[in-house]
Fold this protein.
Amino acid sequence: MLSLGRKQLLAGLVFLILIFSIDLAYHMKTGKVRTDFKYHYLATRVLLDGGDIYNVAQVGLKFKYFPTNAVLFTVFGIWPVYVAQSLWFTFNLGMVFILFYMVYRMISPVSSRGWFISIILFASFIWVNLKLGQVNFVVFFLTVAGLYHFSRRRNFGAGFIIGLAAVLKFMPIFFGVYFLWKRQWRVVYGLLVSLVFFLLILPLLAMGPSYYYQMMQRYVAEGSNRVSQMSGSNTVYGQSVQVLTYALLHRTDKTPAFREGPNYINLTELGHSRAKAIALSLSALWIVLALWATRKSISHNNMAVWLWEFCIVFTLMLLVSPEAREAHFLTLYFPYSVLIAVAAWAKEKGELSWSTGYRFLISMLGICYMLLLMKHQSLFGARFSTTALAYSVMGISSLIIFLYLIVNHPLAQRIEYAAE
């Protein structure tokens, strides 16, 4: 079993200090500021001055999160920009290693063989998030941290952490719905306490009632426009199956972000309202399938089944989110880690009934990963990559894994989980 002692922790701390120093020296010399970090930082500076955090025009981007995000980011925003972004980068890098450790601890009772394979496969996705300074990785980390606490029977803490993740970006609320569906009340209570604290109490204390109310009004107005643009306008960018369905039914530019367009992939010419209604109905179907597959109660000791169902929720989030872009598919790191551990377990046990399933599972994961790789222009060329992303190949990879998890859910009951 992988364990961390004082020497390992001290070595990790020294390593992170070294990384911070190198990153700071490089960016002070080049004058570069990470793209997504920019508007988080500027929004926080505007917040400290009492201005409109949803009008950060200096970088041509808009802050699109709850006011709470800007409040929490003041830990970094009080520093000069180069120091702040190097602290943010180092903070995220530290979480990367903790993430690997938590996932290992969760899957190793199934099998510890091959656990590093998913790290190698998703290293580029992790790097993209770190390089851009996005908040996506923090949200993913907190979600997995909540699930890790649940696996350790710290249910209230699990819900509280997942609640914080949902405040930073709304999609982890799917896990709140899932735990409500599974009647894990302590998790739900923790999540509700977290939402009340981070969405109401903390920003009210930090911003004051009047300023907070003004910014929440701006958030709702900007959020409505943004959701409409992501999932139902003349230009859509997301990789989710919901966005793909809309683009297939309605003439809309499906050019991936930062690629040359326009790209129209519509097979018919339905009106905007009908196409959007069908896309949302299909998303509702995926949600119903997930609820049906996870309808049975599970003993807390049967952690293998919990891990299987966590994977269902992660893939479901990618299917229905209108904002699921390339960097967000880092989320598949968790399902890949679990399914690779399941494949290793099946091979170790040598059960005849799992022989075909093992080969099929590995083949399926390989095909899905090839679909994920199609985002790389250096591997497939700009034209092919742009076309592939226009058809949401990354969302299709999530759909394949989702359907595999749904169809084979009964097999999860047979997986042995050697509790610590």
Observations:
- DSSP finds 20 helices and no strands in the chain.
- Residues 100 and 119 are 8 Å apart (CA to CA).
- The chain has a mean pLDDT of 87.
